[in-house]
């Protein structure tokens, strides 16, 4: 059977529909232009009628009779006057046309005098950087027209530049970081200090777009984030750099905020983190936030080099293996962490060779959080002991396949005191607090696309994960809940996230013995082990052992960190 051709209306229907739509739009525009006076007069009559109704409603009842008499007298006079009705109709149409005019304010075609002066001064400041003596038609010259160089601009309510598009000549070296930095510094200084500017360079079109970034929210408290195991929320950033948002609870409201998510585990390319900042910049807040998120699926070992009790709320909690603030305890904890890393590697390797899945005790993440580890470096050198940072070499180098993550937080001034393994294997970097552009570039490995400012709230800074872009960062408010200066709402938010208190894995509860040992029903006292009696009798049999013990007292026993599978 031969196939019948489609009707012509269906074969080229799209073109006819488009042509018909264009004709209808043209006819509507023409009718609007022709009937514009009639539309204006009708709108004015409607406004006059509404004003008359309001006037009648506002008039008291005892005066409405006099008002009606006055209106009737005016109508009678107009009717008796020669050409009165015609003049009255013309007057009514004129009043209606005046009332029906478009009252929307017209946008100004250009900037005012103060804005023009600001743009002109900015243009003159850019002349030495964007001009050359060999250019026959320079875009930038002293006394030139700034409107060609700035095709797009916008101002805020205070009269300062909020958005600007800058055209520059093709011979400008926009591929050099130093040349870019000079232009960005100049634009930030001339546009207004105290704000963060974002710069977008278009090398193909020879244009630079300058925008003012809004401040990041600082009122987001610690809470449960919607993440998967292996994801840690470091903070929040601008929506232009992140394609993901998290639902957050702010008081009784909920909103979506773009986060900076750090991924750890076997497939992570940045398994360890280094956070630097000035005192009071929020590095301890960042460590507490990471600890609260890590305790959901793993175990945590905390080293407090500040010695101010910032992590006392985590002591004895479920999943917290140790919170150490002394040199002996820190050394023992880090030695155990290195041994545990080796044990996990050996167990996983044996399972792989046997064709079995890794043991369960090697899958549970282990987090080692160190706050100011350089403080113990000086103590170890004074005591002629081993630097605790050297014990991090095994967890840093082999921690990723063993599910061991190391997070180090220290001050900017102590950057040189950090060991080489710490600086080499921590590819996820965070800088909090005020910092210069050179410091940010040396720590993060790349300059940020915004201009750093001198005054920043706590927890505010920059973050870069590996070779990714540099993000603005605001750490969620996770203060010390035992601090009296902390608001009650923030304290309750942190306390609600803490795990319950449990006894340590190596702890042993010894029952209290009854004072009356002779009573029936009392359990007999357990005999001391043989090794203990020998140890107690040894000083009596060896008289030369007492002076040695007196010269070098034994340190306090350190609990062995073990986890039973």
TrEMBL record:
InterPro entries: FtsK_dom, P-loop_NTPase. Residues 544-553 have a biased composition (Low complexity). Residues 468-487, 499-565 are annotated as: Disordered. Residues 530-543 have a biased composition (Basic and acidic residues). It comes from the Bacteria. SUPFAM superfamilies: P-loop containing nucleoside triphosphate hydrolases. The chain crosses the membrane at residues 65-98. Keywords: ATP-binding, Membrane, Nucleotide-binding, Transmembrane, Transmembrane helix. Residues 257-441 form the FtsK domain. ATP binds at residues 277-284. GO terms for molecular function: ATP binding; DNA binding. This is FtsK domain-containing protein. It comes from Streptomyces luteogriseus.
């Amino acid at each position: 059977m031969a196939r019948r051709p489609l009707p012509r209306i269906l074969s080229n229907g799209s073109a006819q529909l488009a042509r018909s739509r264009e004709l209808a739009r043209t006819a509507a525009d023409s009718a609007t232009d022709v009937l514009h006076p009639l539309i204006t007069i009708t709108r004015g009559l409607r406004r006059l009628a509404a004003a008359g109704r309001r006037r009648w409603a506002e008039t008291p009842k005892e005066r409405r009779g006099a008002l009606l008499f006055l209106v009737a007298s005016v109508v009678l006079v107009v009717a008796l006057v020669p050409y009165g009705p015609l003049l009255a109709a013309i007057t009514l149409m004129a009043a209606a046309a005046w009332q029906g005019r478009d009252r929307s304010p017209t946008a100004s075609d250009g900037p005012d005098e103060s804005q023009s002066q600001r743009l002109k001064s900015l243009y003159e400041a850019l002349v030495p950087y964007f001009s050359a003596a060999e250019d026959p038609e320079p875009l930038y010259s002293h006394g030139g027209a700034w409107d060609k160089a700035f095709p797009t601009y916008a101002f805020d309510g205070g009269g300062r530049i909020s958005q600007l598009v800058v055209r520059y000549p093709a011979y400008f070296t926009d591929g050099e970081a130093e040349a870019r930095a000079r232009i960005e510094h100049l634009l930030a200084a001339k546009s207004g200090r105290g704000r963060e500017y974002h710069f977008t360079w278009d090398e193909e079109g020879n244009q630079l777009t300058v925008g003012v970034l809004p401040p990041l929210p600082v009122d987001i408290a610690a809470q449960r984030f919607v993440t998967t195991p292996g994801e840690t929320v470091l903070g929040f950033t601008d929506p232009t750099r992140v394609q993901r948002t998290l639902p957050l609870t702010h008081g009784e409201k909920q909103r979506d905020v773009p986060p900076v998510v750090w991924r750890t585990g076997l497939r992570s390319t940045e398994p360890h983190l280094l956070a630097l900042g000035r005192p009071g910049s929020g590095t301890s807040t960042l460590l507490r936030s990471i600890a609260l998120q890590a305790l959901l699926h793993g175990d945590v070992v905390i080293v407090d080099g500040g010695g101010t009790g910032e992590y006392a709320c985590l002591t004895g909690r479920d999943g917290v293996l140790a919170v150490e603030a002394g040199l002996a305890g820190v050394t023992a904890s880090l030695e155990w962490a290195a041994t545990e890393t080796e044990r996990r590697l050996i167990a996983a390797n044996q399972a792989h060779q046997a064709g079995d899945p890794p043991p369960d005790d090697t899958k549970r993440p282990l987090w080692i959080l160190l706050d100011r580890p350089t403080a113990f470096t000086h103590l170890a050198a004074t005591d002629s002991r081993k630097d605790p940072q050297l014990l991090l070499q095994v967890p840093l180098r082999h921690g990723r396949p063993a599910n061991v993550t190391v997070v180090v937080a220290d001050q900017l001034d102590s950057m040189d005191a950090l060991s080489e393994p710490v600086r080499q294997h921590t590819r996820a970097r965070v800088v909090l607090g005020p910092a210069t552009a050179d410091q940010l570039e040396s720590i993060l490995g790349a300059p940020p696309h915004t201009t750093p400012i001198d005054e920043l709230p706590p927890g505010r800074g920059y973050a870069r994960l590996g070779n990714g872009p540099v993000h603005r960062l605001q750490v969620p408010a996770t203060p010390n809940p035992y601090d009296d200066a902390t608001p009650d709402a923030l304290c309750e938010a942190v306390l609600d996230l803490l795990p319950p208190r449990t006894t340590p894995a190596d702890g042993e509860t010894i029952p209290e013995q009854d004072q009356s040992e002779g009573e029936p029903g009392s359990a007999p006292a357990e005999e001391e082990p043989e090794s203990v009696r020998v140890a107690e009798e040894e000083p009596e049999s060896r008289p030369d052992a007492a002076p040695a013990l007196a010269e070098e007292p034994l340190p306090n026993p350190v609990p062995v960190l073990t986890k039973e599978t």
